[in-house]
């Protein structure tokens, strides 16, 4: 198959949507499919274009068998409501020529990744012009989240945006998303059930294992071998409710065995560092290279996963897959009844979102009970083995791609999609 992936985030970004888009593209390319990507220069989560790239120019490169075309975009120093909209619109407009040029190679599928929804109209148009199937993959309901978190306001504006979103989503041949609750929301927005697909995020369970050595991080950072380390690793943005972490660390400041490691970058990091001033057992790290992720995750005895209350079931934190694969328990701030809560309930402790008192008590409880940590960690690893292995998840996605292409061409999809490579 020929597959064109379109979205604002891509490797070498280490977290979030870019990580998953790149892994999808590279996995498909390794399977023998012809994969190309239209994206932006890497900038996330630092909100600064990475060294070696330029925000204002078109460029192309080959990455692990994938042709990657990059289009300019504007990156604000401090992303907010209006600035974020301009940022997304700048890429949607600048990338349209690259998208149409890539579509001239007549892909079988054009898969656009949300965020950003701004890119969806161009993807749908390009697919119709070249005869490809149009596929919308939702990593994050950015519009709903923006209103729920107060980044966008106004009942009238929300009604207008919802009508436009509903009209657009119904135009796509397939709409996929990463959790059952998010899939239910797609159906509520008018997507036909026959066009809705569950495509959860994944992890390479052979690369992230409980056996990966994390002691070198402890030695490097001066953390005692017998310390209990609570780790947050990932984007430091507005949806995570990171200020809760500072309150948790401060409440547990007298627990000498407890160390906190906060690893990541993003617009909320400076505020988090400010709130942690004076806490001697709190350490900040920048995002670590992908090849060091296993060692980093295994530095933890406890993983921390805070979440803003308004983000429930609008996102499924991408960092969760690595946490579970590492075989460590998770302390998660999520409302009961959400899908995130249902996953974590069997392999960690749940607290109400943005409740530092409850999260601190959960961390303290786990820090004193190695048997509970071991039991919950084993359950976390088992969940990853059963549900999140990259080959199983993307193998199912590949079959869905083959089926939608075969339907367009009026034939039955082969059992192994590679069997049809000469025909597509």
From TrEMBL:
Q: Glycosyltransferase subfamily 4-like N-terminal domain: from which residue to which, for each copy?
A: 15-202
Give the domain of life.
Bacteria
One Pfam match: Glyco_trans_4_4
Protein keywords? Transferase
Is-annotated flag, keyword Transferase? yes
Whether Manganese counts among this entry's keywords is: no
> What InterPro entries does the record tag this protein with?
Glyco_trans_4-like_N, Glycosyltransferase_grp1
Task: Please name the GO terms that the record assigns under molecular function.
Answer: hexosyltransferase activity
- Per its UniProt record, what NCBIfam families does this chain match? PRK10307.1 (NF007640)
Q: State what protein this is by name.
A: Putative glycosyl transferase
Q: Which organism is it from?
A: Achromobacter arsenitoxydans SY8
């Amino acid at each position: 198959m020929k597959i064109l992936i379109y979205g604002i985030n891509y490797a070498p970004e280490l977290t979030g949507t870019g990580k998953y888009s790149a892994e999808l593209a590279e996995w498909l390319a390794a399977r023998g499919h012809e994969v190309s990507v239209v994206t932006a220069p890497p900038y996330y989560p630092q909100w600064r274009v990475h060294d070696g790239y330029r925000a204002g120019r078109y460029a192309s490169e080959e990455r692990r068998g994938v042709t990657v075309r990059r289009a300019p975009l504007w990156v604000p120093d401090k992303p907010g409501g209006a600035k974020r909209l301009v940022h997304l619109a700048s890429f949607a407009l600048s990338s349209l020529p690259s998208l149409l040029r890539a579509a001239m190679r007549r892909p079988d599928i054009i898969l656009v990744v949300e965020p950003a929804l701004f890119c969806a109209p161009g993807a749908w148009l390009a697919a119709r012009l070249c005869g490809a199937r149009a596929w919308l993959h939702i990593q994050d309901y950015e519009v709903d989240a923006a209103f729920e978190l107060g980044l966008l306001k106004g009942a009238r504006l929300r009604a207008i945006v919802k009508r436009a979103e509903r009209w657009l989503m119904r135009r796509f041949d397939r709409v996929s998303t990463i959790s059952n609750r998010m899939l239910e929301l797609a159906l509520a927005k008018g997507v036909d059930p026959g066009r809705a697909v569950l495509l959860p995020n994944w992890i390479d369970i052979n690369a992230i294992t409980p056996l990966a050595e994390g002691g070198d991080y402890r030695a490097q950072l001066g953390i005692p071998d017998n310390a209990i380390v609570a780790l947050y690793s990932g984007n430091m943005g507005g949806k995570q409710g990171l200020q809760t972490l500072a309150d948790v660390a401060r409440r547990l400041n007298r627990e000498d065995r407890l160390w906190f490691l906060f690893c990541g970058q993003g617009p909320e990091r400076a505020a988090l560092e400010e709130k942690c001033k004076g806490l001697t057992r709190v350490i900040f790290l920048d995002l670590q290279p992908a090849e060091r992720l296993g060692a980093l995750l295994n530095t933890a005895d406890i993983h921390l996963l805070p979440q803003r209350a308004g983000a429930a079931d609008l996102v499924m934190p991408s960092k969760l897959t690595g946490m579970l694969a590492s075989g460590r328990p998770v302390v998660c701030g999520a409302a009961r009844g959400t899908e995130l809560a249902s996953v974590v309930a069997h392999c960690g402790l749940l607290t109400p979102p943005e409740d530092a008192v409850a999260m601190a008590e959960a961390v303290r409880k786990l820090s004193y009970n190695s048997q509970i940590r071991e039991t919950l960690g084993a359950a976390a690893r088992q969940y990853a083995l059963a549900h999140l292995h990259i080959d199983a998840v993307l193998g199912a996605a590949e079959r869905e791609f083959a089926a939608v292409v075969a339907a367009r061409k009026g034939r039955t999809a082969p059992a192994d999609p590679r069997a049809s490579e000469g025909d597509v």
